[in-house]
Amino acid sequence: MIRSIRWRLVLAGALAIALALALSGMGLAVLFERHVERVAVADLQDRALALAAMVQPGGAAGASLRAPPDDPLYDQPFSGHYWQLMLGEELRRSRSLWDYTLPGDQAAPRPGQSAVLTLPGPRGEPLLAVEQSLMVGRGPDAVPLRIVVASDRDELVLARRGFLGDLLPYLGLLGAALLLASWVQITVGLRPLGQVGGRVAALVSGARPRIGQDLPAEVVPLATQIDKLLDARDRELDRARHRAANLAHGFKTPLQALLGDAARLRGNGEAEIARSIETVVNQMRRHVDRELARARIQSGRNAPGGSEPGWIAAKLVGVLRRTPLGAGIDWRLSAPSGLCARIDPDDLTEALGALLENAMRHAREAVQVAGRPEGNRVVISVQDDGPGVPEADLERLTRRGLSLDPSGEGQGIGLAVVADIVDAAQGELRLANAHPGFLAELHLDAAPPEAASSFPKYS
């Protein structure tokens, strides 16, 4: 999971969303607390101005205080709501303060102004307080009035906790929605990479010759470089194939000359030496023929389409029926229409030709050629009614064919070339005794029927 780009992006997105929601929650909590404090301060200011109505101008002192208005909040001791008035030297307190006096050592605000304070309460709790300063009367006889109204700050803390308690479920839902949206965004964003992966898989299977340019702009450079790499690989394979073919052709003339020398030696009475030379030359010719055949094989990854096994088998059987040996064979063909295998037509023609010739040489009366679909593969079978192969040789033959042993022993160059062709097409060659007869099966990947329409028909 650590190597997955998707999960890395999801994890990074989840961390970013969690951090953003946490900061948002903290910011909203601070804003809510400030808003509640502003509302509380405004309420305290209103209450302070209402308490100013206790002042009664006149008298020897210039002003006096009336009885406070009845208010249950201020009558209950330590209720968390307090007020305190000081008119000149006269001090009045709410009953809720009991015998406690709010500190007044701080400088009073200017007359007509108010100040927001934090004061210790009767039990040491922090209080949010508003101090209002007024002047009662005019001139030198004016009496200063200080009104302090306070409330317990714990109420603000409780309000913030309640707000956060209501906010957290919505933040959780918002986080889940954002995470889902992030997953959808990442999935949509990474889809082109999946498309490239699918096209690379199609390259490996031979379903596409190249990745192509019809992709999002961000992945086109990657696709272009891969296509250039494939072009360079194909050019190198072509050069290697041509070099192998040229080398094999270069051997044919000297080998033919050696056969001529062997014939002259045989004419001069040197039969043993001539036979030895012919044995070596024939073995070398088999190697040369096989390399020539392998040089002609097209890799299944490069095959842009497919072949029709039934059509190709019918054409090959038509040719073999005109031979003296094939004319006496009962050829039986069965392949459904539309059956198409993913292999180059030339390669399938060469492979089926080798199998049909082998079956024709060993058959007593009949050879059966059949094609059938099997899952996502096409199975092409060639079966004769001959003596078959000894079990010990069959096991060795199957192993050698599938391992592409270049020695060409056992069944000779034909089956070795067939094995090479099938392996290049990412298929499988299976050999078995049919009791009676010998059975060879080609298991090849299936291709859509229209894939064969682009290939020329054989005559």
TrEMBL record:
Say which domain of life the source belongs to: Bacteria
Could you list this entry's UniProt keywords, alphabetically sorted: Kinase, Membrane, Phosphoprotein, Transferase, Transmembrane, Transmembrane helix
Supply the Gene3D superfamilies for this chain: 1.10.287.130, Histidine kinase-like ATPase, C-terminal domain
Histidine kinase domain sequence ranges: 246-448
InterPro entries attached to this UniProt entry: HATPase_C_sf, HATPase_dom, His_kinase_dom, HisK_dim/P_dom, HisK_dim/P_sf, Sig_transdc_His_kin-like_C, TCS_sensor_his_kinase
> Pfam family of this protein, just one?
HATPase_c
Question: What are the record's GO terms for cellular component?
Answer: plasma membrane
Where is this chain's protein located in or outside the cell? Membrane
- Might you give the EC number(s) for this enzyme? 2.7.13.3
Q: Which GO terms describe its molecular function?
A: phosphorelay sensor kinase activity
Designated name of the protein:
histidine kinase
What species does this protein belong to? Paracoccus denitrificans (strain Pd 1222)
Q: What is the lineage of its organism?
A: Bacteria, Pseudomonadati, Pseudomonadota, Alphaproteobacteria, Rhodobacterales
